[in-house]
Amino acid sequence: MRNDQQLVMDRQTRPAADKSVGVGIKTILFHVIDDEFHSERIETALALARSCSAHLSCLHVTPIEAYVAFDSFGGVFVMNDIIRALDERDVELQTKVEERLAKEDVSWDYEQVTGNVASRVISQAALADLLITARNPLTQDFVGPTAGFLGDLLQRSRTPLFIPGSDRGAFDPTGKALIAWNGSFEAANTVRASLGLLRLASEVRVLQVLEKKPDAKQFPATKLLEYLSRQGVHAELATEPSPTGDLGHDVIAGMIIAQARGAGAAYIVMGGYSHMRIGEYLFGGVTRTLLRECPFSLVIAH
């Protein structure tokens, strides 16, 4: 029978865990959108693909509504010149993206499709580990309000969204991360789905806002710290008392942004549209606020 000394020696000689082992992000879906922030998003996608040794799958969706014209009598028809103009624009965008990616050392592919934007993106994201999209996905004429489009992705997709920050700064996948934790299933799902990124982070901080209502159920963030530690992610816990009075979701969002700024975070990890009571109080409207405007990149899932 082996003695205690032998067991201790065996444990001490076990090789240290490699952060690159088990990194779960291997396929990244990049939602291609031709807007003023296009170049910054490509750089972000490339940085993530390199850090995770992931394949970059590019998808551009032309809204089916773009082909349809209406006359003054309510008729619907498709004009040949509209089709020709859209096809030319799509080819030009694809050429620009492919020429850019051809110079990089990551594997990639490009697909051009036509249809309902949200549905096609969700379908393609089913076998992706991360979905990169924009804060302002397309003109509201075809997609609807930004929060509605992103909310649709969050509700219907099981793939976490990565939304670059509005400050347009270069994204560092090995930078610091802030987890906005409210103990909900949505927050837990996002953390599990983000382990590949969190293992790369130079520092991880967990923020928990403590609700003061006497009947509020608190889910201890210490359990999250234990879980992360088993995954090779060592995090620090920061707690903030809930503000008193009806201060609105903008205040809670401001607390999260302030913590991220104080920690020097590169991105925020959080659950989206929680259904638990505490989740609705802290993060229901906060999700909408941060989707509209946030200087930091968001990793968010439902």
Structural features, described:
By secondary structure, the protein is an alpha/beta fold. The protein folds into two domains: 27-163, Rossmann fold, CATH 3.40.50.620; 176-301, Rossmann fold, CATH 3.40.50.620. Helices cover 41% and strands 22% of the residues. It has eleven helices and twelve strands. The chain has helices at residues 4-13, 38-52, 80-101, 117-125, 140-143, 146-156, 185-193, 195-198, 221-230, 249-263, 277-292; strands spanning 27-31, 55-63, 68-70, 76-78, 108-115, 130-132, 161-163, 176-181, 204-210, 235-241, 265-271, 297-301. The protein has a ten-stranded mixed β-sheet with strand order 5-2-1-6-7-12-11-8-9-10, sandwiched between helices. Helix 9 links the parallel strand 9 and strand 10. The longest helix is centred in the N-terminal third of the chain and has 22 residues, at 80-101.
Kindly summarize this structure in a few lines.
This protein is an alpha/beta fold and 302 residues long. The chain has eleven helices and twelve strands. It folds into two domains: 137 residues, Rossmann fold (3-Layer(aba) Sandwich), CATH 3.40.50.620; 126 residues, Rossmann fold (3-Layer(aba) Sandwich), CATH 3.40.50.620.
Keywords:
302 residues; alpha/beta; Rossmann fold; 2 domains; ten-stranded mixed beta sheet; two-stranded antiparallel sheet; 12 strands; 41% helix; 22% strand; globular; disordered N terminus
Reconstruct the topology from this structure:
Elements: H1 4-13, E1 27-31, H2 38-52, E2 55-63, E3 68-70, E4 76-78, H3 80-101, E5 108-115, H4 117-125, E6 130-132, H5 140-143, H6 146-156, E7 161-163, E8 176-181, H7 185-193, H8 195-198, E9 204-210, H9 221-230, E10 235-241, H10 249-263, E11 265-271, H11 277-292, E12 297-301
Parallel strand pairs: 1-2, 1-6, 2-5, 6-7, 8-9, 8-11, 9-10, 11-12
Antiparallel strand pairs: 3-4, 7-12
